[in-house]
Amino acid sequence: MDSSAKNRFERALELFHESNYLAAINLWEELEEEGYDNPNLDVYLHAARLERSKILQYVECTSSDLEALALSWSAQPRNGSLTGHVTAARDHLKSRRYEEAALELKQALLTREEDSTLHLALARVYCILGRAKNAVLHAERARALGPDQPEPCSTLGQILLEIDQHKESEASFLRAIEIDPAHERSWYGLAALYYTQKRLGLSEECVKKALSIAPSSLTSLAFLDEIRAELENNENLILEAQKVIEAHPQWADWHLKLGNLHSQAGRVEDALKCYERALQVNPQFVKCRCERAGLYLKEGRFREALDDLKAVQNEFPDRDEGALVRAATLEANGVLGEAAYEYWSALKVSPDYANRHIELGKKFFIEGLYEQAARELSFGLSLRPDYADGHYFLGLVNAKAGRHAQAIDSFLEALKLNPHYLLASIALVEVYFASGQKDLAKRTILESVRPLVTTDEDRARLAELEARVG
């Protein structure tokens, strides 16, 4: 690795931590153009651009607000010291002396405690300084003092986004837009929220709305380019996932991945179809139910979200029982939205280690590494014996090794968990036939295979199977 490039990368990282985002961006962009190979480069560059964009917006709008205040108070001699604090705060902001700006604004608030503009300015400065709790307090105070003004709601939405309170952030942005549909910063903030949530289609719509209000906004134009690049990459990933699924239709995790990609692109119904296919392959796929519940929540389909979350609640040992009780009470009272969010917060989704081992075992099987596949599949099933496709692939491994009895047990277990598992039924017929159990093979065709055949491809495969079995 080029030591000079590495040193420049590390220097940019130092600048980033010092909040000198522009200098960090310039260095990282140079490295990107030179083809510097570091897996974290894109991540840091994106983060620096977002932080710089946020600060530029805060500094610009706060400086403008403070200049207007200073101008309105300068005509009154008794406001001399107040004007001085506000002017000093503005100058400190422009010079990136944020601590000093906060001190001046606090001094001004001692005299004008009921001024919403001062509270809003201090909220933004606290957000730049990373003091989220103080920022929220002053933004909420500004909103209370100016309930019919869009800017306090929009700023509060931005701060809540910073601390990952997405539901509350969205409500604040939407309230600002309700007050003033032409409030550009609220549309931009909503676009940033949806981008964070990987709802790229909605994010694109919102930033376009922001640009329709302020067509010359360089920040919004750059953000739109970034979103479109993500969407283009998303489409490429969708094509790749579709190819994998076409070759391996019983890989539940790839149906889930495709569903997530459709969800990010804003194609909700396509995403839901993929989640349904994943659950048809593996009805006990907890992660898939959680992803689908999350999408239902975003779409306001609370009844369906509740159904999914309640179906998997027993799979979470660290669940918040108190929150579940509150959720059940809210549901009984017909308050479905709040009930669904209580369930969501009560269930702490932990990594599905069993699924990781099973998916690795499936990949080993495809690559012909049968011993490694058997080990991974068996380990995964020891953690979660309710994965139908894990039993199916373990059956395939055993059949390849000539262990017919173990293969039969695995296929039967897969069908016990998912009676509609056509591939497992066909595999069971083949292993019965291979082990000389012709009558059981014929009976399985009649009872398990024929009822599941729906497509021309399935019918052709059934005809071939019946001809072979006799």
Could you walk me through the main structural features you see in this protein, from its secondary elements to its overall organization?
The chain contains 25 helices and no strands. It is mostly helical. It folds into 4 domains: about 35 residues; about 180 residues, Alpha Horseshoe (Serine Threonine Protein Phosphatase 5, Tetratricopeptide repeat), CATH 1.25.40; about 120 residues, Serine Threonine Protein Phosphatase 5, Tetratricopeptide repeat (Alpha Horseshoe); about 120 residues, Tetratricopeptide repeat domain (Serine Threonine Protein Phosphatase 5, Tetratricopeptide repeat, Alpha Horseshoe), CATH 1.25.40. Helix 19 packs parallel to helix 21 and helix 21 packs antiparallel against helix 22. The radius of gyration is 29 Å and the shape is elongated.
User: How many E strands?
Assistant: 0
Oligomer: single chain
Shape: elongated
Helix and strand succession?
HHHHHHHHHHHHHHHHHHHHHHHHH
* Percent range for β-strand residues: under 5%
Protein traits:
Serine Threonine Protein Phosphatase 5, Tetratricopeptide repeat; 4 domains; 25 helices
Produce the secondary structure layout.
Blueprint: H1 3-17, H2 21-33, H3 41-74, H4 80-94, H5 98-111, H6 116-129, H7 132-145, H8 150-162, H9 166-179, H10 184-196, H11 200-213, H12 218-247, H13 252-264, H14 268-281, H15 286-298, H16 302-312, H17 321-332, H18 336-346, H19 353-366, H20 370-383, H21 388-400, H22 404-417, H23 422-434, H24 438-449, H25 456-469
Helix pairs in contact: 1-2, 2-3, 3-4, 3-6, 4-5, 5-6, 6-7, 6-8, 7-8, 8-9, 8-10, 9-10, 10-11, 11-12, 12-13, 13-14, 14-15, 15-16, 16-18, 17-18, 19-20, 19-21, 20-21, 21-22, 21-23, 22-23, 23-24
